[in-house]
Design a protein that fits this description.
Shape: rod-shaped
Helix content: 40-55%
CATH topology of the largest domain: Histidine-containing Protein, Chain: A
Number of domains: 2
Structural class: alpha+beta
Distance between the termini: 110 Å
Strand order of the largest sheet: 1-2-3
Strand content: 5-15%
Largest sheet: 3 strands, mixed
CATH architecture of the largest domain: 2-Layer Sandwich
Radius of gyration: 34 Å
CATH class of the largest domain: Alpha Beta
Number of strands: 3
Number of helices: 4
Length: 149
């Protein structure tokens, strides 16, 4: 008995099919590299920040402005602080800064507490009390003790 000889079917890999195969392979490698860089190591945090930035239409400046407006309105709405001209701003390092003049220490501490409750952020209280802070002179007497360089 004679066994028939079969030859393999030859396929033509030249031309357009080979070009698209190389392009698809290269795109897969590039996508894998980019995904590995974004997600690998500390990239999870980077990816979270990216999604948070894309999902929220408001910028950080708009959120800060809205927070300052909220604190200003709370200070104006309070009956004991209603007629006072208090400035509200950011004092750096995530703090709310209060400036202005009040009639008593009680008003000063009340304004600070109200700003803290409204914003949830630390408050840098630079409010001055009339009758106490306007009469002080901030001069220092020379000290006779020796000092190192």
């Amino acid at each position: 008995m004679k066994v028939p000889v079969t030859h393999g079917v030859r396929r033509d890999w030249g031309g357009e099919l080979a070009t698209w195969a190389v392009v698809a392979f290269s795109a897969g490698v590039a996508a894998g590299f980019v995904l590995g860089e974004v997600v690998g190591g500390s990239g999870g945090r980077r990816l979270f920040r990216l999604f948070r930035a894309l999902s929220g239409p408001r910028t950080q400046a708009e959120r800060r402005s809205a927070l300052l407006t909220k604190v200003r309105e709370a200070l104006r709405a309070d009956l004991s602080l209603a007629g006072l001209n208090l400035d509200v701003g950011f004092g750096g390092r995530g703090r709310i800064e209060l400036q202005g003049w009040v009639a008593s220490r009680r008003q000063r501490s009340h304004a600070s507490r109200l700003a803290l409750e409204t914003s949830g952020m630390p408050v840098l209280n630079r409010i001055l009390v009339r009758g106490e802070d306007d009469r002080q002179t901030f001069t220092t007497a020379p000290d006779e003790s020796p000092r190192s360089a």
